[in-house]
Amino acid sequence: MGKKRMPVGGSCASPGKRGKSELPSVAEMGVLSCGGKLGPNRALDERLHVSLVEYMKRGSLYGSTYTEKPVWLALMATGRQPNPFYQTMKQVELFGASARAETDCPPQSMDDLALRYRATNQYVSKKLVDTDGIGWVEHRMGWYIDEDYVKEFLMYYDDLLDWRKGFQNEEFEKLDLEGPLEIVIHMLESASLELELDAEEDELKCKFEIVKEKTPCFSVFELPPPVFPFRIVVVTFELTSPEGAHMIFSGNLYPFRPNFMKRHIKGKRVKVKPNDAYAEFYRVIENIDLTLVEECVQRLTDIFDDCLAGSPVVVRVKDSPHPRNLLGEVIKPFKELHHIRVEF
Predict the structure, then answer these.
(1) How many domains is the chain partitioned into structurally?
(2) pLDDT tens digits for 114-172?
(3) Which residue from 227, 183, 173, 162 is spatially nearest to 75, judged by alpha carbons?
(4) Cβ distance 294 to 286 under 8 Å?
(5) Taking a C-beta distance cutoff of 8 angstroms, is the pair 340, 304 a contact?
(6) Same domain, 208 and 256
(7) Both 268 and 154 in a single domain?
(8) pTM for the model
(9) Least crowded by CB within 10 Å, which of 33, 96, 143, 285?
(10) Does one domain contain both 213 and 273?
(11) How far is residue 124 from each of residues 77, 113, 134, measured CA to CA in Å?
(12) What is d(CA 202, CA 186) in angstroms, rounded to the nearest whole number?
């Protein structure tokens, strides 16, 4: 293995789950204290398809694995059988063990990989609880990578897949193919990341192709974030009149706690039902004047881009007898963004 390795420091989040909860109204919360769209599934060929998109602007909010740089999500899928992504964690360990005697040996575990490349793996298993009804895609797999380490990680992954191509045991079938594995990296035309891969200079063993597209190959709402609990932020509007609303934040709000406090956005832990095992924590902006459309749009822009660091958000509205015309005008500018999904 002649490729460069870049040691760094960090840590990984642990998987887990929690029970589903409903969203209370603001009135039910009592006194508060300060404290993109889903696209159709693609029919994939036997090449390995990687959708590489920016996931959030400041990775350190998710933990010490990442720096102050953005985190990029590499969502992976293929029509090839046997699936090269099968049992990724075990592949990493077996690959590491196979070259342990080398001076420049690959990572020996997922934790080791996260330390070296600031990249963590996520997978949608059957046991994963979709608490907020986002619609994670079963068996979808991907990597969350610090922006400065995207190329370094891909070079490692090139080695891993080349090793996998020739490996077989009682659990893993050999990948029956002639020539190198073909990997297509799909990126947005508007992507800020400049990624260049040279087969000879980068000592690549797989065949890489970078394709620029107007829309993402896969949706960022197909895979949970790399931080426990595995929930993104859901923003729900509760209309109090045709011209007014409360704005309720739910999901995993903890990574963004300093940003909420900086904006004096109040919050409270609430049990929707008395016998609930868990109390959910909500943040709320009360009594928004929807008639001030431009001001509301600017406020939402600040929340989506800065407070939530550009991370994926689902926007919903609670059932009410009030018309949604003004709210629709406020939300309209965000409907075509790949990281914001409007569900009304």
Answers:
(1) 2
(2) 999 999 999 999 999 999 999 999 999 999 999 999 999 999 999 999 999 989 999 99
(3) 183
(4) no
(5) yes
(6) no
(7) no
(8) 0.87
(9) 33
(10) no
(11) 12, 20, 12
(12) 19
